[in-house]
Task: inverse folding
């Protein structure tokens, strides 16, 4: 159980929700809740931490985030348990990653208690916003932006840390069609791929738009300059079942250290299956497909949970994956993970934080 210090000043909204959110739950990210968390960084310290009604924030046009893009974020989910309680999935991992991102982007880190309490206190206040429809959750979006008003290029001295909440329905309702990128990249060695930095998402948008225009759900990001090694897909880590073994790209500084990825690896290992974290080429996937060894392929992420791939297109080749009923991993892993998240099975890894 999270211990709450209630150290933040709280101003409640007059128009706050008075009853549990009902179905249909809005599409992912489209609705924010009644309250938000905000803290300011000035003179080397986090100050003025408070929960307020959801509101606009005054910002000068010279604020550094608008020009040089010091901005990072996280994505976490709270789940309505079968017994009605609310629990958050592995938020401490997100706190660690938030600070990894902050350090890479020359931004201040956040103390553990400030991060954890900002989330737990806000979710507690917004309890009625946690949906109970199947597959739904309350998405938690902590983020930090540079606010110093100065047009000279330098790391900002001032920042805002905020948390927003958004009720979320299931992200993908059907298996995905994936286009292998042979032109754009998402991340490179020495860059910011391992950080959840806003700029990573900005640079990925054009590829995503072009993939969508060609009828694909997501891009499969490849390593430059030869576009042979697989990185990740959209905002998901990726897994391929080749024969009996599940393979996922190793954490190499280019891909995000996904909390879902880590959870899937633990679940697979715990079930006694073979899993390898290593470099994987598109040629190996093509070879496995040709030899009927490509038995499953899926993406993982907080938003999408486990999202199976239906088709992977490389240049002009379409790789069709086996029907969902024949998949050795994706169905079972999604079910197993969801059962833990919704409290339908014992939380043997101690992943859920009760609020
Ligand atoms: C680029 C990228 N890769 C992978 C993931 C999956 O990470 P997680 O499982 O922590 O949500 C995300 C989402 O956060 C992402 O944005």
Result:
């Amino acid at each position: 159980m999270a211990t709450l210090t209630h150290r933040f000043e709280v101003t409640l909204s007059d128009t706050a929700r008075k009853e549990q959110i009902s179905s249909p739950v809005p599409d992912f990210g489209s609705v924010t809740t009644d309250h938000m968390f905000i803290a300011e960084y000035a003179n080397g310290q986090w100050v003025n931490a408070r929960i307020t009604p959801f509101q606009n924030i005054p910002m000068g046009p010279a604020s550094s985030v608008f020009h040089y893009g010091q901005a990072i974020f996280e994505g976490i989910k709270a789940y309505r348990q079968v017994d009605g309680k609310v629990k958050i999935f592995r938020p401490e991992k997100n706190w660690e990653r938030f600070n990894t991102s902050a350090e890479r982007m020359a931004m201040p880190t956040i103390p553990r208690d400030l991060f954890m309490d900002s989330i737990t206190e806000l979710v507690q206040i917004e309890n009625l916003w946690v949906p109970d429809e199947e597959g739904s959750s309350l998405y938690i979006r902590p983020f930090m932006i540079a606010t110093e008003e100065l047009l000279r290029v330098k790391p900002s001295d001032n920042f805002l840390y905020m948390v927003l909440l958004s009720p979320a329905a299931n992200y993908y309702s059907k298996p995905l069609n994936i286009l292998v990128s042979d032109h754009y990249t998402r991340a490179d060695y020495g860059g910011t791929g391992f950080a959840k930095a806003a700029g990573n998402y900005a640079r990925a948008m054009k590829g995503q738009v072009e993939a969508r225009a060609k009828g694909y759900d997501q891009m499969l990001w490849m390593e430059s300059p030869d576009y042979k090694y697989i990185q990740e897909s959209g905002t998901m880590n990726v897994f391929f079942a080749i024969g009996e073994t599940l393979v996922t790209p190793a954490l190499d500084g280019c891909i995000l250290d996904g909390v879902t990825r880590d959870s899937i690896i633990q679940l697979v290992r715990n079930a006694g299956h073979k899993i390898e974290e290593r470099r994987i080429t598109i040629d190996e996937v093509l070879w496995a497909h040709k030899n009927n060894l490509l038995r499953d392929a899926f993406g993982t992420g907080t938003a999408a949970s486990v999202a199976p791939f239906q088709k992977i297109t490389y240049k002009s080749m379409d790789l069709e994956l086996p029907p969902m009923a024949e998949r050795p991993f994706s169905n079972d892993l999604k079910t197993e993970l969801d059962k833990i998240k919704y409290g339908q099975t014992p939380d043997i890894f101690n992943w859920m934080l009760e609020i």
